[in-house]
Amino acid sequence: MSSADQGFTCHPGERYEMPIVFGPTELPQVSQWGYLRALDITFVTDPVAVRPLVPAELDLPEQPTVVISRRSFDQVDYLAGHGYEELCVGISVTHNGEEGTTRGNFWPVMWVDQIRPVTVGREFTGFAKLGADFSPIRDDSGDLSWEMSEYGTVLARGTIRNAKPVDDVALDKIAQAGSIGYAFCSRYIPPIVNSPGVDEVTRCQMRSQITSVQVGEAELELASPSWKDAPNGARAMSALASLPILQLRRAMVIEGSSSFDRSTITALPRTRSLSSATTAVAASGPAR
Question: pTM to 2 decimals?
Answer without folding.
Answer: 0.90
